[in-house]
Amino acid sequence: MEPIIREMKEEDIEQAANLLLRLKKFNSEHDPLFSLVDNVEEEVKKYLKQAVKEQFRDAYVAEYQGKIIGIILADIIDRLFYNPRKEVRITDIYVLPEFRKKGLGTELLRELAKIEKKKGCSVITVEFPTENLVATKFFKGEGMRSIISIYGKIIE
Length: 156
Description:
The chain is α+β, with helices and mostly antiparallel strands. It has helices spanning 13-28, 40-53, 104-118, 133-141; strands spanning 4-7, 57-64, 67-78, 86-95, 123-126. Helix 1 (13-28) crosses helix 2. The chain starts with a strand and ends in a 15-residue tail after the last helix.
């Protein structure tokens, strides 16, 4: 039996929140600028509830035997000054460790690209912490390359 990739529903939020929380904790290990807020669990659930309802954010899950094993969230962006105009930017992607290295991340990426292309998006991008070498390797392996850099520091 293969995992099913489908749109996230309200009833998926509890399970999906656990995956997104794992991702945010992983990000926080890479850089102090990703230090988690005290009420991160509450904020993650609120974010996912909003993602399910918004028309400019898409949320999909990979489900296997009734369990959410992967998530992908993306924003649709109008690139005002560039062609092609519509971009889909992945903001979050996470696959449970026991389901990695089996092509599920690639499937989530391809399914999102297929769906968003039908909506007029011609560019797919992803954002993640620079120090996340696992993500860098994965996305380069998917044919993606760095196109923008964001630098930051704490204001003293």
